[in-house]
Amino acid sequence: MSNVEEFYKKHRAGAQDAAQSYHSYYLLLLLLRLRIGEKIGFEVKEDLHITKADGTTEYIQIKHSTQRDAQRNPVNLTSLDMDLWGTLSNWLTLIQSDNFKNLDKCKFTLITNKEERENKFQNALINFKSEKDKDTEIFLNQISSISTNNQQILECIKQFNQLSQNDLRLFLNNLSIQTGNNDVIEKIKEEIFHKCSGRKEYIPTIFDSYCSRLQEKKYTEICNQGYYEISYSDYTKDFGHCIRVMYRHSPLPVRKWNKELPNDLESQIFIQQLLDIEDIDQDSKEEIREFTFKKLSTINTLSDWIVNKEIYQIDLENFEKNTIELWKNNYRSKYRNIKKKIKNGHLISDLEDEIKPLAVEMLDHLREKSLSVPGNLCLVDIFISNGYLYLLSDELKIGWHYDWENRYTNL
Q1: What letter does residue 87 receive in the DSSP assignment?
Q2: Residue 194: exposed, middle, or buried by beta-carbon count in 10 A (0-12, 13-18, 19+)?
Q3: What is the pTM of this model?
């Protein structure tokens, strides 16, 4: 090899870049598998760590190699592999630290794309876990018989021998070595496949969206605070839009109320608002039932959208903001002259005959509108759009009468 070729070889960063990409892909895979109450950390306590809902912490070390054997397969994780022993040594040092607690609440996982073959440590671990009596002496004898002059490996074996039987047993029971993980991208796509209900045509787009979003969030968070940690709720907010592409061109489904309507429908705030502006009267029993049915169907529908991941919580929040903004614009337009008259000294009670028709006009105008959920190109069904107006007015987020806030706040 020439001096120039030697120089080029020393300065190649391909293997390092592949290892970093592998690390990020595994983070994405774990994010897709995240559950309520869990949190993932990137380069916080370990390469990756997961804090479970029950308080358990899983420490995950990621090792990637671009080395290949004669058949172009990843090399083996051998008995003397320093990826293995270096990782074990780090974990043993951690659990032997003075302030380390709750070993019974810890799991340790080494993930590598290297293959497994004739690994004496792995064999000793498998044998230990398969034995009912969990004999730590047998395990220690097996790893002590590994022939090596490597001082780091010998020191690591010494660390194992220094553990109490109880700590050693806990550590081994919660230790996992996962080899042959060379298909992380395919595993990610399998997770996406399940999230998009088997619709394969969306997988490439969703995959690219997840990867791009993760790189952006990880880079920003690490630059701002030096590490990246994400909870399940943060994940749904930060990555919810990645799968939204599947629903952009599909109408969101309507889930109609299928239970009995409650009693005393006239006492509902949104019905009180409609009675007040004379959109309906006390004898409009059928309309009151119809409007209540729409409101309850809307509550049912919004809940199902979230549960079935047809939209995410942030979409629902933006849907509400946009609808309220639409109402504000109409309210301001309708009551511009009323506002001027009140400013000039007129009493609201003297303007009732003007206010009520304007309120009904505004309501009728908004009833004709099919609302839209941000990110979805199809308009929401008019049935749900109307029900959503009733829901927001029932929650006193919007109103129809000019003085609606003062009239209904204490109901």
Answers
A1: H
A2: exposed
A3: 0.63
